[in-house]
Specification:
The protein has 166 residues and is an alpha+beta fold. Helices cover 23% and strands 25% of the residues. It has a single domain (24-156), classed as Mannose-Binding Protein A, subunit A (Mannose-Binding Protein A, Chain A). The protein has three helices and eight strands. Strands 1, 2, 3, 4, 5, 6, 7 and 8 form an eight-stranded mixed sheet that branches.
Length: 166
């Protein structure tokens, strides 16, 4: 009888999970680290598609405080990827960095040395980068949005769509 109770409780917990499997919970958000490389635009589209599969709105990650930065750096440190797109860009106005999720200007940043530098006038998308030889230990760099990189999606933690029973 105890085994059946444990199984039932496990199924209920899974149904009510606030972050899907393979997503990581931090504060009020769920985060997903891709394994595939995409352009910034394709990464954004894929985050949106993935979110819809769960009945939620998902987008590229907003890193709006040091705690979120530290949490994502920890997640990224367990991968072999050297850079993950996040949702900051200055595509509309050079030098005015905004979050794709809200259009609001970034107020927290973790730019690496000499960043953002808009090298060759072509770098408009933010990436969490691991390149210690260049001084980037999970700092942000600006990169061309057409680079094929891994990416981090986020969606709300509290938007639960539990299945209807009965």
């Amino acid at each position: 009888m105890n085994t059946l109770l444990v199984i039932a409780l496990s199924l209920i917990a899974a149904a009510l999970a606030r972050c899907p499997a393979d997503w990581d919970h931090y504060n009020d958000r769920c985060f997903f680290l891709s394994r595939d490389n995409e352009t910034f635009a394709d990464a954004l589209s894929l985050c949106e598609v993935i979110g819809k599969q769960y009945g939620r709105v998902a987008t590229l990650a907003t890193v709006d405080d040091a705690g979120t930065q530290k949490h994502l750096a920890n997640l990224v440190s367990h991968t072999s990827s050297l850079g993950f797109y996040i949702g900051a860009n200055d595509l509309v106005h050079e030098g005015t960095w905004v979050w794709v999720s809200s259009g609001h200007a970034i107020t927290y940043n973790n730019w690496g040395p000499t960043q953002p530098n808009n090298r060759d006038g072509a770098e408009h998308c933010a990436v969490i980068t691991y390149a210690p030889q260049d001084g980037f230990v999970y700092h942000w760099t600006d990169e061309p949005c057409t680079n094929q990189l891994t990416y981090i999606c986020e969606m709300p933690f509290d938007n639960v769509n539990a299945p209807v029973v009965g």
